[in-house]
Amino acid sequence: MTLQTTDTEQTNDSFSSTSTSTQQAASGSRHYQKTFQQLVDAINRNIGRNIGNQSDLHFTLTLTGEDSQFTRFSQVKVRQTGQVCDGQLRLTLITSKEITSEEISSKDGSHESKRDSVPSQAADANKAHRTATITLPFTGNFTADWKVIQPALTQLQAELPLLPIDPYAVLPTKTQATSQASHQSQNHTNEVHTGNLLEASAVAEALLNPIRSSAEETSPALDFSGLYAGGLSYRAYADSVGKRHWFETPSFTLDYSLFGSRLQQAVKGTVAGKHWNPEKYEQDIAAVAAQLKLLSRPAKAVPRGSYRTYLAPAAVADIIDTIIWGGLGEASLRQGNSAFSKLEQGEAVLSEQFSLEEDFQRIGIPRFNSSGEIAPTRLPLIQKGQWASSLINGRSAKEYGKASNGANEEEVMRAPTVAPGTLKEKDILAELDTGLYISNLHYLNWSDLNAGRITGMTRYACFWVEDGEIVAPIENLRFDDDLYRFLGEGLIALTDQQTFLPAVGTYDRRSLGGMWVPGMLIDQFRYTL
Amino acid sequence: MIGPLTATLEQIDIPADWIGIRAMQEVSSWRAMRDGHPQQNERGLNQGAMVEVLAAGQFGYSATNRLTPEALRAAAQRAYDQAIASSQWAIHRFTQAVRPPIKGSYRSPYIKSFDSLGVGEINDLLRQLCDRIKVSAAVVRTSAIARTHEVDTWFVSSNGSEIHQKIAMVESHLGAIAQAPGVTQSRTDNGYLARSYQGGWERFTEDDLWERATRIGEQAVALLEAPDCPTESTTLVLAPDQMMLQIHESVGHPLELDRILGDERNYAGGSFVKPQDFGKLTYGSKLMNITFDTTLEGELASYQFDDTGTPSDREYLIREGVLQRGIGGLESQSRLNVPGVACTRACNWNRPAIDRMANINLEPGDTDFESMIGQIESGVYMASNRSWSIDDQRQKFQFGCEYARKIENGQLTTLLKNPNYRATTPQFWANLSQVGDGKTLKVYGTPYCGKGEPNQLIRVGHASPVCAFENIEVFGGAE
Q1: The complex's ipTM?
Q2: Which A-chain residues 63-82 have CB contacts (< 8 A) with chain B?
């Protein structure tokens, strides 16, 4: 690696310390989109020159990037603060050529007949494909980025003939649609959101002042810990058949814990959106601080056992977050790696009250996947306790002879929504009667994936309730229970209102979206330690 | 690279107390086969730099993948602005003392370079491994993965640090899923990507590779017929590939000083360990000796300097059961005034360095494996992690394994499926009754230790012998 001597074109440092984040997002993203398009054009020209050497050569190109402000808080103070400008391009080359007799044995024969039954793939059924991918930095500067991509293209093209046949490779194809408008929306999208975020220099003051003001009225003082993450996020897709998708949005998440007088007792809060609203933030803080008063009572040690339990929406979100990684995808189901085989096979059912679907209409994230496919706006996976559909991406569609529904590479839910029920908020404690009120869960994992058993810990504001009254916070408990039981006959009721829980994860980059879930009342939820 | 970075540093004109640039380049390859068909043939280039500035006692950072002098100077200005804007809210007034001036270099050793195997050869090897794992029709899924990474890190600072570290790594995985009517069982090569090491291809093409592949397939199939692990309190013997997880979750994380300081409370959690516990707390039995050791050749998180330039060495964290020092770098040490280690690390150029585990190892004892098992009248032997969960103070845990055997009258007997155990950390380590000798010690690692805000996944290594624990609650999948 070497430092380049100088910038050869307009720099794209979209952050500055004086302008607002919204303005930064707008100017920076326009430049990013232009550079991305220039790179796509350059790849197209380069690939075009080589088509004669490599039969049919196709490409897909995805882009993921962000300009982010991260400020971390602890003890109502700033622990770390900084900014990150980062972007990654993922370029995939796929060769396609007539299959030779020697190669026939290399292709997977077991699903050939199924594959032929899928019209969109029939055309390439007699072709052998090879796939190679490279991930590269995206800086937004065409000259700098092309300097890295050009040799990578050469390297990938040299590598392709050495790779084995990829029987489940998905060639980029334009989606055929009945109307021009539909055709356009499936193959070309450009979704640009605007917002109004905090300036970098204002984050600490905007977040900490209300806490300190609140602390002046509270004795002893409140303690605040958490992360503000905000800025521009962008995603894009392009391929050799001309599909183009662009998505960008300014957004922020604030994921925090408010601690009161007792050291390990806290209430969790999240704030998210495209527009920073100081009044809303202050209201949230006041509401969370009010809950802390309940935690000032001495904690009750609840012995292990089974208890009627109310899971508040944040706790339900923790369970759904585990479930969406538990094998709702076609590949996991077919490969023995799923908690939902029994449900899919009709050997078990869940409660009629439980429905789970993808709902892109309510959760603002891009609908296109890494193959450029557009997921349906809504996709039911579990309807009234019965299996409705798996998540299927192009590779699985090809392997298992099904139609793709635009799932992502991992076949994991992106816009989860759990249908509401009929339990009114004012009736929650009365219906719980005696048992546990769980606000949050922590560190969930499958204790037996194929059996559908999940374990995890209670966390934050969790209470023992007697005769419909909160009695005391509890010492943390471990649960370990079977989803076929607690979402089956054990599911007593769902609240009639859903809550949006924003995705606050920042592994690799800031997450987008979140999920809509209600609260759940469960009979005999099983606590083991 | 050091020269251009130093030259850029000298051109930065801001009134900071200290400026550092940490540039990183990672060149990677990911090759994966499933059921003998390619799943992934991918290369990767990841590069960028983090500029960190200390001003008015507060650090600010700015990270960019634009590697030009202008971009780095602009990043320095932004980092300075961040520090100044938040200095009145600073959690601690830091000084240059937490960024010691050091010059040096480190290169991880390797034998077979990553160029020594062509992409065709690697794919062929992975395909053959899938074939080897599929010992019968009951194996419904086979997988083989090989990943390589070459990471260069350059660190320069305004107080004279000039460090270059170059680390080559191989991460590999073999797996089988077997099915019979109503039962599914999995077996892997010591846990997902547990065979992650520093070194070259020699770390993958080891002499026992083919034997391991066959064994994984055979054991997955054999587990289909096995009874569930019984529910009882008994003597639990853990293989090194489960000890890795046990050490990581119930020793490594609770000893992190930033958790003890409360920085992680909103995400990963705190710790039951208190600042006053260092030098006093009896963490486990006298057989328990835990080291922070970045000097072990080939272990995944070996290095000579952490990401703030602090020189690293081997240190006892727990000696004869007593807590000695925490896992925390100079920043946490200065805030907490307790002894720590050189472990302020970042997973990438785009994340700030925080307290992290590196290699956390359990030192071997003097009991050979046969003697250990021979002394146990009744117990369960478990291997290879498959499930893990622990509370936010690192006390109540429940872990599950892929494979278990009953121990009866000093012998390993019946194969058991779905083995799990649960306990609390102090009780568990107090019940450590036998520690295997050096012949039972194995070294593993994981690329996936998650922590921090913004979140970071970092590579850690764990070496351990086989260990036995008394009176532990074990149970199976049908409980």
Answers
A1: 0.96
A2: 68, 70-72, 74-75, 77-82
